[in-house]
Amino acid sequence: MTGGPEPISAAGREELERELAGLRVEREAVAATLRDGGGDEVGDRADEADELQRGDDLDRLDTRITEIEGRLEEASVAGAPSTDAVGVGSSVTVRFEDGTESTLHIGELANALDATLVTADSPLGRALLGHRAGDTVTYDTPEGRTTAVVLSLG
């Protein structure tokens, strides 16, 4: 990635917004189970451990919520994906070494339901980032090193 604000695809934005909504609901449920802290309740160590665990869960949820909000804000600043060079959010058509061609989408989040999605941190995704139409990229696969030619960005 470029180190600056990175664009995000519409599908990637939807996925992050869906995750954010779920995290906010989960956070509200966890927060509701925490004690006020002002009571003189006497509990055993198990109660204290449960309370600490819920506090840790709340911290984890808050951290992820902040990360997603920051990423969505960054994507808003970045604007639309570039059509000059492959980046996060790009749609790119490539020809693989075996002659097959495929249009792929470069994203941040893996999605098992989208066979055309390539994450930016996968071997192919990393190889494609920053390249333009006509460039040949080399990347590692379980079968060994291979190449692909960037045909177009769209």
Task: Please explain how this structure is put together.
The chain is of the alpha+beta class. It has two domains: 10-78; 91-153, Chitinase A, domain 3. 42% of the residues lie in helices and 21% in strands. The protein contains three helices and five strands, in the order ααβββαββ. The protein has helices spanning 10-33, 45-78, 123-128; strands at 91-96, 101-107, 117-119, 136-141, 144-153. The chain has a five-stranded mixed beta sheet with strand order 3-2-1-5-4. α1 packs antiparallel against α2. The protein is elongated. The mean pLDDT is 82.
Within the largest sheet, what's the order of strands?
3-2-1-5-4
Structural class: alpha+beta
Helical content band = 40-55%
**Main beta-sheet strand count, sense and barrel state:** 5 strands, mixed
Count of individual domains: 2
Spans of at least 5 consecutive residues with low confidence: none
GO molecular function, one term: RNA polymerase binding
GO biological process, one term: regulation of DNA-templated transcription elongation
Keywords: Transcription, Transcription regulation
Protein name: Transcription elongation GreA/GreB family factor
